[in-house]
Amino acid sequence: MGSYDLTGRKALVTGGARGLGAGMAQALRAAGADLVIGDIQEDLGRATADELNASGDGGKAGFVRLDVTDDASWEEAVRQAIEQLGGLDIVINNAGVEVTSLVVDLDAESVRKMLDVNLLGTALGIKHAFRAMRPGGPAGAGGAVVNIASVAATIAFPGISVYSATKSGVDRLTRVAAMESGKLGYGVRVNCVYPGLVPTEMGNQLAQDVARLGLFPSVEEAVGAVIGLTPQGRLGDVTDMADAVVFLVSDSARFITGAGLPVDGGMGM
Fold it and tell me: What residues pair up with 34 in beta bridges, in sequence order?
């Protein structure tokens, strides 16, 4: 873990019940931030929050139900987060889905799902972060938003065309939102990270899917191809991504906004 001090900060992490989101929540908590996990998986989300509270460091971790594709759900989740934490100055837009498919076999419903969760969900997250954190908002002290894009936004990897498109959209959303925040005096920095492949449930499923589609002879060769494209010669780890997020919301990144930070071992360069 990094050594950045987030004591007194108040964070909302979407999709924080498991995988990268849970790792980011853990890293934020370890750095001193109080937080709530926002997720549609209520039992798992509450269990993850309970595990963070059991660390014994005196911090606070809570849970709010959040469907990132729903405007009203965002409004209520942010209200509850501010009520639970006594403020809000960090939002991590991590929730995402990936449905592997060849372009020739794209399913319209799966496309809509990825657009709704990955792109609309991030856009609504930025919207409600701004409304809460800007001067006059219910939190009103500025802050930082980090959106989770993907190395898929910077490379042409087979089988993930629409996922790649949505993550490219997250990059553009980030940069325009950062410009608007600065121009309008919101005091909210907006950045994104491009994670490389991490062997979470989603990452493992991707490797199985591209092998099933015949894009690689086996799961092992699919993973090997990713490693072969990565100068550091390994897959990413949850802590690699989580530490980058902690950096971007910390005062060490106080003059960084509108940026995309690759955390991919060089895969996307």
Answer: 10
Portions of the chain given CATH number 3.40.50.720: 10-196+237-262
Cβ pair 109, 153 in contact under 8 A: no
Calculate the alpha carbon distances from 261 to 124, 188, 192 in Å: 21, 17, 6
Torsion 87-90-175-97 (CA) sign: negative
User: Which active-site residues does the annotation give?
Assistant: 163
pTM above 0.85, yes or no: yes
CATH domain 10-196+237-262 topology: Rossmann fold (3.40.50)
What is the DSSP annotation of 143-200? Answer: EEEEEE--GGGTS--TTBHHHHHHHHHHHHHHHHHHHHHHHHT--EEEEEEEE----S
- Note the pLDDT tens digit of each residue in 137-185: 999 999 999 999 999 999 999 999 999 999 999 999 999 999 999 999 9
* Residue 109: partners with Cβ closer than 8 Å, 6 or more residues away: none
Identify which of 16, 142, 132 has the alpha carbon closest to the alpha carbon of residue 78.
132
CA angle (34, 39, 41) in 5-degree steps:
125
